[in-house]
Amino acid sequence: MQSHLIRFIKDFLYRRGYKINKVSTLALLHEDYLKAVSGYIRKNPVLFDVGANVGQTVSKFKVVFPTSEIHSFEPSKVCFDVLKDSHKSTHNLVLNNVAVGSEKGSLDFNEYSWSSLNSLLKRSFTKSELIDSYKVDVITIDEYCKSNSIFKIDLLKTDTEGYELQVLKGASQMMDENRIQFVYVEVFFYENYIGQSSFGDVYNYLSGKGFNFVRFYAFEYTGEGLASRTDALFINKNFIN
Question: What is the mean pLDDT of the segment spanning 117-140?
C-alpha cells in the first residue's frame, strides 16, 4: 500500500514538473556539473543558457540531455550570428538575441576582441581591446517564462561576466515559486569588471531564495596567485530529500 502511494505521489509531481530523488552528495560533487545534475532533473529538461556566446554550452547540453529544450540568450550581434549558424540544425533550441537582467529595458553592451569577455559592464583593467559598444535589449527571466508559458527551469546557467546577480534578480518570482531547480553561475573573487557582483553577493541572494551551495569548479587565478573567478553550482533545497 505504501509503495503504491509513493508511486502515485511521484507520478503526480512529475506531471507538474517535479522529480523526487534521493540526492547523493557524492553524485552532486561530480567534477562535471552536467553529470552532477543529470540524475535529479526530468528526462526532457528545460535548460536556460544565459550568456551563450557562440553556443559552446548548447553543444554540451545536447550531449548530456539530447531531448532537452534549450533557451539561449546572447546579446552580441557577432556571437549571435555564429551561434545561429552553428546550431541551425539543433532541435528544441530557442535563440534570443537579447541580454538578461533584473528589469526590462536597454543597456550599453561592450564587445571586446576576446568575445568571452563581452559584458554589460566595463572591464576594470585592460586585458582585451574594446572594439564596439552599442545598445541592446534587456529582458528578465520572469518575464520571458511568463510570455512563453515556461513553468519550470531544470537548470539555469548564467555566464554574463559580472552581471550574474542582476540576471538572478530577474528570476525572483520563478525562484520564490520553486520553479528553478539548479543554478550554475559564474562568480568572481577579484574585480574584473566595474560594478560586478561577487561570490558573496550571489551566495547571499541565492541562499535567501532557498538554494544550497553545492560546489565550485575550475578556478582562474590572477598573476599574483589570487583566486579570480570560477563557476558554482546551487540546488533548490526543496528538491533535496
Answer: 74
